[in-house]
Write a structure and sequence with these properties.
The chain has 147 residues and is of the alpha+beta class. It is built from 6 helices and 4 strands; from the N terminus they run ααααβαβαββ.
Length: 147
């Protein structure tokens, strides 16, 4: 027994301090788990577009196909990409419509009044790169259609 006491003697001060350090350890643990939206959010840009704005953008920024643009003057503004992401387990499932609504929102921010070449990838499963349980990614080209 004497030998065991000799071995544990350096740790005796830690045992005395343990109750005092417990709240500090718990605080560090909680802070690490709740570091805010940038720690646990998606690693890709996701814009939350409310339903009213989405409906308004559908009329303001139509998606054109090649036939609709024949004989129409337009200027390419820039390519766009948007991702609908289910980041948290309680988030709604990602949809192609949500990604398209985000594309329209982005098109408006670059002063485009239309989009062309809309394409969406198939629904993706869990992605550590995007930090999404599931996601939909769509691409389009923002255009400025002349009146």
């Amino acid at each position: 027994m004497r030998h065991l006491g000799y071995v544990l003697a350096p740790f005796a001060s830690l045992l005395v301090l343990a109750p005092a350090l417990l709240p500090l350890a718990a605080g560090v643990l909680v802070a690490g788990c709740g570091g805010g939206p940038y720690v646990h959010g998606p690693f890709v840009e996701v814009i939350k577009v409310d339903q009213l704005t989405a409906e308004k953008l559908k009329t303001e920024i139509p998606v054109y196909d090649r036939d609709q643009l024949k004989g129409v003057r337009y200027k390419v503004v820039q390519p766009l990409e948007a991702t609908s992401c289910k980041n948290m387990l309680w988030d709604p499932p990602p949809t192609e419509q949500d990604a398209t609504d985000q594309l329209r929102f982005k098109a408006r921010t670059v002063r485009a009044n239309g989009m062309m070449n809309l394409s969406c990838f198939t629904k993706e499963g869990t992605s550590l790169y995007k930090n999404c349980w599931q996601s939909f990614t769509c691409n389009a080209i923002a255009i400025q259609v002349s009146p």
